[in-house]
Automatic annotation (TrEMBL):
Pfam families, per the entry: AAA_3, AAA_lid_2
Domain of life from the UniProt record: Bacteria
Entry keywords, A to Z: ATP-binding, Hydrolase, Nucleotide-binding
Protein name, UniProt field: ATPase RavA
Stored Gene3D superfamilies: Magnesium chelatase subunit I, C-Terminal domain, P-loop containing nucleotide triphosphate hydrolases
Known EC number: 3.6.3.-
EC top class named in words: hydrolase
GO molecular function: ATP binding; ATP hydrolysis activity
Family to which the UniProt record says this protein belongs: Belongs to the MoxR family.
Organism, as annotated: Fervidicola ferrireducens
Domain AAA+ ATPase: 40-181
Amino acid sequence: MRKVDAIEFSRRIFTVVDNIGKVVVGKTQVIELLLTALLAGGHVLLEDVPGVGKTLMAKALARSLNLEFRRIQFTPDLLPADVLGVNIYSQKTGEFVFNPGPIMTNILLADEINRATPRTQSSLLEAMEERQFTVDGVTRRLKEPFLVLATQNPVEMEGTFPLPEAQLDRFLMRLRLGYPELEEERSILHRFGAGNPLEEIKPVLNAEDILAMREQAKGVNVDESVEYYMLTVIRETRNHPAVKLGASPRASLLLYKCAKAFAAIKGRDYVIPDDIKHLAVPVLSHRLLLSYESLLRDYKPEDVITDILEKTAVPVE
C-alpha cells in the first residue's frame, strides 16, 4: 500500500472498525484500542467475564484484515509443544520433520491463558517479544503481523496460574469489554437470533496494508513538550505512595509507540496530550504493583493512574 495522507489513513482504519462493529456491538472504543495495539506491534490481554464477545472480536478482526487466525484453549495439561510445535520422526525419510504448532499464524487467541501452567505460559514469551520461537535448538521466525490476544476471567480464579509480572509486561494493553447497554444487547439478539453475522464479514484490508500503515504510524510527530508530559506521568507511577513497583522504561517506549499509532488512527500526524491520557490506563495499569496497604484499601492501578493524570500539568502551546 502506498503512503496515504492522515485523513485517508484514518478512513481506512475506520472501515475496519465499522466492519468489526457489524459483529461486535457497541465496542468501538475497544476496537480502536485493539487496532492501535496491532499498529504499534504489541499484544493485548482481554480480561473480562465469559460471554461478552472476546473470542468473537478476535475472529472478526482476523476476517476483516484477511489474516490467519488460530485459537488455543489453555488448560493445565497443555504443554509448550502444543503451542510451538514438535519434531516428529519420519520412518519414510529417516529424519525428524518439524510439525508447527498453532503459534505459526497472524492472530493467536490464547483463550484463558491463566489456566495453563507457568511453563506453558512462558513458551509464548520469546514469540511475543522477538517474533520468533525456538524448538530443539532451532529458531524460526513468525509471520507478520503477529498479534497475541490472550483472554482471562478475572472472577473465577480457582485452578488458575496468575500471570507473573514479567509476562504481564509483555502485553502492550489490558482491555475490558464490559457488558453491553440495553439497546446494544437488544441489537445483539436481533443480529444473532437470525443467523451468524461473522460468516458475512469480508476483508477490508490485508497484511500488507497493516504492515505499511504500521511503518507510516512510526512517522507521526511527537512534540518535546508532549514527550516530557508522557515521561512525567510514567515517573510519577514510580513515586506514587500507593505503588510498590512502577512502570518500567519499556512501558515508556510502548506508550510512546501507542500514542503515535492512536494519533494516526484519529487522522493526525502529531500526538496530543489527550492521546496520552486516553492510553495511559490500558497501557500502564497492568504494569503497576501496588503496596499491600493499598490493596487492603481496595485501591486499584486504574485509580493510581487517574490520580496521576489529574495532578500532572498538561502542556499547552
